[in-house]
From TrEMBL:
It comes from Sulfuricurvum kujiense (strain ATCC BAA-921 / DSM 16994 / JCM 11577 / YK-1). Residues 2-120 form the Response regulatory domain. It comes from the Bacteria. InterPro entries: Bact_response_regulator, CheY-like_superfamily, Sig_transdc_resp-reg_receiver. This is Response regulator receiver protein. Its cofactor is Mg(2+). Keywords: Chemotaxis, Flagellar rotation, Phosphoprotein.
């Protein structure tokens, strides 16, 4: 399964990609902001999951999620929001926009594994 990691921090992208790799996900693409993430998605309509940061330049994660959800090709694409925005209002906003799950930074590899399992319906 192809996964897309969108985060303006190259360090965070590397951490997420390394964790995904340890979980057996090798086909991981990345983008450094929502604009780039959207472009990668359009080039890879067979994407299996989107993991996106919230706070990014150009197009933030919430705008990206809304754009993805408005496109019929990606209506069922699982989306996990990874962000420092951990307030209840932010979580509700993200869920209403269409994210399937939410991870607050900093997080452990175990948390990422559990959220992936919950979203994909696999054993954690």
């Amino acid at each position: 399964m192809k996964l897309l990691v969108v985060d303006d921090s190259s360090t965070m992208r590397r951490i997420i990609k390394n964790t995904l790799s340890r979980l057996g996900y090798e086909d991981v693409l990345e983008g450094e902001d929502g604009v780039q993430g959207w472009s990668v998605l359009n080039e890879n309509p067979d994407m299996g999951m989107l993991i996106t940061d919230w706070n990014m330049p150009e197009m933030n994660g919430l705008e990206l999620v809304k754009k993805v959800r408005a496109d019929a090709r990606f209506a069922d694409l699982p989306i996990i929001m990874v962000t420092t925005e951990g307030g209840k209002a932010e979580v509700i906003t993200a869920l209403k926009a269409g994210v399937n799950n939410y991870i607050v930074k900093p997080f452990t590899p175990q948390v990422l594994k559990e959220k992936l399992s919950a979203v994909l319906g696999t054993e954690g």
